[in-house]
Amino acid sequence: MASKQDVSTTQQPWDLQASPFRADIRILFQSALVVFVVTVFIGILNGIVTGLNILKLSQDVLLTHVHAGTLGWITLSVFALGLWIFGEGKASTERNTYVRTLSILGAVSIPVYVLAFLSGNPIARAIFGFPVLIAFIGLFGWLVARSRQVRLGVPHLAVLGATFTLIIGGTIGVLLQIQFATNGNFLPNGAFAAHPATMVVGYLILIGMALSEWRLVPNTGRLPRAGLIQIILPFIAGFILTFALLANIIPLLGLNALLEIIAVVIYIVRFAPRFARISWLERSSARFFVLSGIFLVVNVALLTYFLVITITGASGPAGLLIAVDHSMFIGVMSNALFGLIQDASQEQRSFWPWADDVLFWGMNIGLTGFLVALLSGVKILESIFPPIMGLSILLGILTYFLRLTRLSKPGAVEVQVRPS
């Protein structure tokens, strides 16, 4: 006899219906999607006005764009990822007040922090950065506690390493806001560069690899040595980069680049055969995860190029650093996170199924064109491709938000149990 709340042993471990934290995960994903709207609107506007050379958006608006994307969209989704992947093995009916409180704290404090950047008020930024940092620490503490109760694989270790690095990057960010608010000068000059660098290298690269591993590699219960090395190297590289920038030791950037290259070579060897088998026309999450992996390689290549010209003092394309950021934020993370949310809302995949194609192709064609524009310096292309990318993403946001809203309540979907 089938039970409505028992979970099959053959069921995929990422079935959201089987997670005791499905309500919290849905809240976090929906909050992330809402904040992402801010990022997209500013991105479209900036692309148009920059490409047509009409005007330049203020620094406050651009910082809002960056933080709404990095914290609102990506980090709220990473909170959901952490609850999802570390919640495996818990009873589907179990409730956790700490997790609910942590989810609400993240879903409220991060959007408020984003608004503080839009306000341009340095005191507000300094004050509202603290609850966000507390949420980071709270998530990491829960992950560490859960790590003693789950079988740790490469994705789990990558999420742990990324979240720890997030705390480091977040701490530097909050201290920077305090310094700006007090007109102080207690941080090294390299702190302004160390903050975003830590977030991209030590944090987001690891999250990208975690998502690839969790979704594209079958769980055998073993800890592959190559996979372990693949995530340890970026973790170490992130700290080397942070220290090098804080201490202004430029030659250490070369060591960072070397570790990143070795890690991505291992990644290519492990994942290329899986990428080759993808069906690009099938409306599945797999194509999002595969393209996320491809852009991960592109991002590390661009980042390595940037570090090389920084060390040597050579000149590069004016838009290189922006290309590095967008290849990560959109190419790696947005592809992977939309794939993750597509899986989370798979129960409602029949709702606007065509939107999956518009999102996938529009976002990635728009991103590719935008990267070409940035690296080639052809300004007019910057007014063409960002709207294609942005409008496709807005459709995806609306579609997935509505799908998540329409998900059935816990226990409403009958899950068949197979005899062991």
List the keywords:
420 residues, mainly alpha, Four Helix Bundle (Hemerythrin (Met), subunit A), 74% helix, disordered N terminus
What does this 3D model show about the protein?
There is one protein chain. This protein has 420 residues and is mainly α. The protein has a domain at 13-150: Four Helix Bundle (Hemerythrin (Met), subunit A), CATH 1.20.120. The chain is built from 13 helices and no strands. It has helices at residues 22-51, 59-86, 97-119, 122-147, 154-182, 191-216, 225-247, 252-276, 286-312, 320-344, 354-376, 379-382, 385-405. The radius of gyration is 21 Å and the shape is globular. The protein starts with 21 loop residues before the first helix and ends in a 15-residue tail after the last helix. Residues 1-13 and 411-420 have low confidence and may be disordered.
